[in-house]
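Could you help me review a protein record that somebody else here produced? What it holds is a sequence and that sequence's fold in token form. I need someone to confirm that the token line plausibly describes how this chain folds. Take the sequence as given and treat only the tokens as open to question. This is what I was given:
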Amino acid sequence: MRLAAVDIGSNAIRLQITQVTFYEGNINFKKLEYLRFPLRLGMDVFQEQKISDKNRSKFVKLMRAFKLLIDLYEVDDYMVCATSAMRESINGKEIVEEVKEEIGLKINIIDGNHEAELINMALGAHIDQKAYLHIDVGGGSTELNIYKNLEKLASKSFKIGSVRALEDKVPLSVWKSMSNFITENVDIKDKITCIGTGGNINKIFELAAPRKGKTFISIEKIREIQGYLESLTFEERIFKVNLNHDRADVIIPAAKIYLAAMDAANSKKMLIPDVGLKDGLMQVLYKRNKNKNPPKQ
């Protein structure tokens, strides 16, 4: 079985094509293709409330390219989900309809809660009975989920994202609202462990150069990496640290969001499972196809 997931974010758009195989009672998800294209839709939307004609044209071309790959890989099923930039854009639905009519690709614009639910589906193997605060920072929004004893106790989406924060489009009241949500729903006596998802925290974890097999990073190390990156110019982040152009500016405001959430929860460490929206989409796709198209032995 071959499945494809497309995550249309505010800072970048990702396509993943996965082969699902079955052997001796075990299911394996093998990545066949992964593409990330740095089309920053959020920059348009958070400033002008709409996607510009230039980025609209590039977006349609990108969707055509993704559809060709989906067809070439003979994918059995796919899902395309768009998050904060597309859902806040006044011409978002119009662009979605254009892609459907011209290319035959169906795009689902999802709200923050649905986005969080999809990401949570990929976290199952990484949590246990302890207390966790899951922090997913995107370009336009941050999704928070609080777990204890394998139960989700609270969940909320906030209009705080790396691109939005970069453009100073986040009111102080929203920062306070996020902090209040955390303090009202976690018990610091539980010694909360945070779970960080999103491209920026994965890059921060990589820059921390953890020992092989290590999946945690301390809050002190995140602060250290943030301070180091702030000491560099934009160009130095690209040439000295080897960051992509579309990562070199947003990684600092993203770190600020993760740290603000960790501070509110009085958490000292973060688990980095390297999963995201596309992985949750794969779980949905597999569940709806496993009976009608079961993996072969």
Notes: The mean pLDDT is 92. The first strand starts at residue 2 and ends at 8. The radius of gyration is 19 Å.
